[in-house]
Amino acid sequence: MELLSKSPKKTQVANIISVVVVLALASLRGAESRKARILESFEYNAINCRAHSASITDFGGVGDGVKSNTKAFQDAINHLSQYSSDGGSQLFVPAGKWLTGSFSLISHFTLFLHQDAVLLASQDLKEWPLLKPLPSYGRGRDAAAGRYASLIFGTNLTDVVVTGKNGTIDGQGAFWWQQFHKGKLKYTRPYLIEIMFSENIQISNLTLLNSPSWNVHPVYSSNILVQGITILAPVSSPNTDGINPDSCTNTKIEDCYIVSGDDCVAVKSGWDEYGIAFGMPTKQLIIRRLTCISPYSATIALGSEMSGGIQDVRAEDITAIHTESGVRIKTAVGRGGFVKDIYVKRMTMHTMKWVFWMTGNYGSHADKNYDPNALPVIQGINYRDMVADNVTMAARLEGISGDPFKEICISNVTIGMAAKAKKVPWTCTEIAGITSGVSPRPCDLLPDQGPEKLTECDFPPENIPIDSVKLQKCTYGMN
């Protein structure tokens, strides 16, 4: 028994060790507790950072994919609006499936989706407010009446960011596509994201799935950055355009991957007499590093709703795979407006129906009141440095009688024809321009300049203002 006894000195040392161990464990538990209280912490890049933060869960949000969160989103945004003039605010959507109908954004605001967050679009029509038709269209695209508000909507805003760590917005579009095909919709289908009459907008680092109709629609707005977006929809889905800048100025679309049932990027500015009267063009647009798959539509479409005008579009480093056409200009008698100063370079295409397509006979009028004397002006179209393979037809270029498409330039383009390609690779009517170093040989209306007069089509060397915007490194942390 004596061997088991401890001296006072040894007992004191043991007690000290015990206290140290207890303190260490308590410290670890405290650190773990503090760590547990920090729900999320991360960095992201944005046009502006925010002074105030909140999570959708603070306002009763439940990410179970069943409970509607429409009220929670609107309550959260309404609450955060008090900080619009005090450093702005950000709303965090954590991991989970967040069922919601349409909700509206505010200025000086960031909506941020966790990488495992999914916004699920509600299929309850009561959660989709109705809006009047766009003034430059005069009617809805699906029906003559108005339209459903987009899932994420905003108007008359400044400084808005919708971003995430590649979080997902799922439009659950099959419900809408079925109603559309059955002719049962009285109003135009909603889009996933629409921002109107606004400036300084960023939409970035998100995955957009199965939109009811168009995916991203900035309209009547300026200073817009769309970056790092993945858009996915069945190639048979109706009107699931990827990104549609519409009557917008100073816009950049870059580093996006789009698979859709319609045009991957569709540049617009209003429809017939309504677009002419509204008179707001789309101009200063950059499209860069885009990858597109759309077997029934275009990689980049200009029009057909172009009645307010489209000018100064610059596209570069574009990849199209199994897509109906590379660049398509769509217009018609009655559209008015213009498409001019278009520049495209370094485009790579695999398995295409047409590389180039221009048509002045697109039809599809808003109503019967369009002006048959309103002829569009198509001029200054520049394509260069392109390669394509497995192509059915090199080009289908059809201007308007008495209103030819002019100043077309195509240079340094090599098109590999498919085994079952059309016997005549180029068809051209009512167009005028030149080509240089193009194979197969273009039509006579686009004469080749010959090896002694090699021509490089224009591409402006100077940047537009949106290219000089520098993103800030922002942080989010919630205790």
Automatic annotation (TrEMBL):
GO MF annotations in UniProt: polygalacturonase activity
Subcellular location: Secreted, Cell wall
Annotated keywords: Cell wall, Glycosidase, Hydrolase, Secreted
Any single biological process term in GO: carbohydrate metabolic process
Domain Rhamnogalacturonase A/B/Epimerase-like pectate lyase residues, every copy: 55-100
Pfam families xref list: Glyco_hydro_28 (PF00295), Pect-lyase_RHGA_epim (PF12708)
Domain of life: Eukaryota
Cleavable signal peptide: none
Database matches in PANTHER family: PECTIN LYASE-LIKE SUPERFAMILY PROTEIN, PECTIN LYASE-RELATED
Family: Belongs to the glycosyl hydrolase 28 family.
Protein name: Rhamnogalacturonase A/B/Epimerase-like pectate lyase domain-containing protein
